[in-house]
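Have a close read of the entry that follows and walk me through the local backbone shapes. See right below:
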Amino acid sequence: MEPILEIRNLTKTYKGGFTALRNVDLDIRKGEIFALLGPNGAGKTTLIGAVCGLVRPTGGTIRAFGEDMHANWRTLRARIGLVPQELATDMFEPVLRSVTHSRGLFGLPPDPARIEGILKSLSLWDKREVQIRALSGGMKRRVLIAKAMAHEPELLFLDEPTAGVDVELRRDMWKQIAEMRERGTTVILTTHYIEEAEEMADRVGIIRAGEILMVDDKDAMMKRMGRTEAHITLAQPIGTIPEALSTLPLTLSDDGTTLTYRGGDGAGQGKADVAQITKLLTRDGIDYVAIDQHESSLEDIFVTLVEGGLESGSPAA
């Protein structure tokens, strides 16, 4: 299946020499939720801006829906929605009028029923006659999502959609994002809440200093880079690691009271190894009093990559 969005060798260098994007290659599949993760200044917003026409790339190509964005920008942009990171909007307009106007900007005929449905789905219908400036920060962000959905986009960008939003509103927004995907909308989002990407995304891309380090299915990434770490506190100190455990990735603390395991593959091997270690310790008469075990999260993998644990990635289509 042809990607809904295909980016090749995308580069952006600003006046003064700062390079925000470096030969970015990225394919987005139709109907998926794709999470783009990276630290501040990594190039996430610049990448989104380049696709949405807010940033002029220095080099490279962008194809959306099988067509060249540069050659067919006006037609293709009408099929793309954007929820920007900044909250700037028409603050003195009532919610209903503002969202309705956003639909008209893309040349679509009025559709009061659809606008009502969008506002109700985002718990904004009761606020439809309220000026946007009078809303809370979380509700203003919901208005931005409503405005982006008003023209029925097939591809939707969400740039930090839950920043500054309380937990309840954040959960409601993620429910809406899941429903968008069910209706066939492809969603690309950036977020600082990595646990949300871990829960919601089908695939994850990690960007650092304008370069894509890795793109992979979330589960495959967890399996390939996930690890188990376990600290086993012994009842009595030992002098060396028992021979039966010598083939496992174990270290012994200087005082001989703690065995530390670091290994596995994110697919259960680590847990199996730790279970085997405890069995062998018991068999050899070595008592332990505590086990502290930790499985890698997507956040652990993200931190490893952005801190230099991987110098080059292998983006997947």
User: Anything to note?
Assistant: Residues 9 and 23 are 4 Å apart (CA to CA).
